[in-house]
Amino acid sequence: CETVESLGLKTQKSTDHLYTSTVLDEVLSIKTYYERKYLLHDKNINYIQFSFD
Q: Nearest Cα to 30, choosing from 42, 18, 40?
């Protein structure tokens, strides 16, 4: 988030553990092929949503 904010962008949502966080919604709960591969190796899925205003 520090880099996003240093560029003058506004962080909307951010998490280091997507599938155990409160930002999870119907769309974000869909796991991609690569997310499933990472999760099988006990890796976290990071997520950030930002805006330009």
A: 18
